[in-house]
Amino acid sequence: MFGQITRPLLIPAEAEEHLTKPAVAQAAGLDAHSAHEMRQGQLDMGLVNCRDPYTSPYTPAGKACHVAPAMCMLCRNAVVFTSQLPRLVLLAEHIEVMRHRLPPASWQAVWGRQAAALTELFDECAHLMPAAREQAARMRLDLPLGMRTEYDR
User: Which residues contact 18 (CB under 8 A, 6 or more apart)?
Assistant: First the structure.
């Protein structure tokens, strides 16, 4: 339905603090303005950052993305800071809960690709995952009500 999985860009912590430098932003495939807005939290879509919420592959051009944060893990615009990994751990846990609540075909259609994208992302930064899981244990996942009613049934 949404094409092939397109993984978000992972920005390591050591690069995150230097994103406001044009050369670092460019090396990450970002423009300096977007990188600055991300560092300020202005492009945080609830779970991850977005390069440009008005150019979502899931929304008509020029309109704000209406599927965030539900589809962020499959979006070419998504940018993950390592500081956001605990939130993604909570999303992965939510997806696993849904695996037991939904019929297998429904779970696969709604959550399967996102689960695969999260697994790939977590594998890429495996050395950070123990700390992310520890932090996640002290956090709560807040998903928009619309996301819970649309995707969790």
Answer: 24
- Tell me the average pLDDT across 38-51: 91
Angle in degrees, CA 9, 4, 43, rounded to 5: 35
Tell me the pLDDT of the chain averaged across its residues. Answer: 86
Name residues whose C-beta falls within 8 Å of residue 41's C-beta, 6 or more positions apart in sequence: none
CB of 74 closer than 8 Å to CB of 5: yes
CB 31 within 8 A of CB 55: no
3-class secondary structure per residue, 46-63: CCCEECCCCCCCCCCCCC
**Residue ranges per domain, the chain?**
9-151
pTM: 0.85
Tokens of 68: 């965030």
First to last CA, the chain: 18
Tell me the H-state helices in the chain.
13-16, 22-27, 32-39, 85-101, 104-107, 113-124, 129-136, 145-151
Tokens of 10: 């992972």
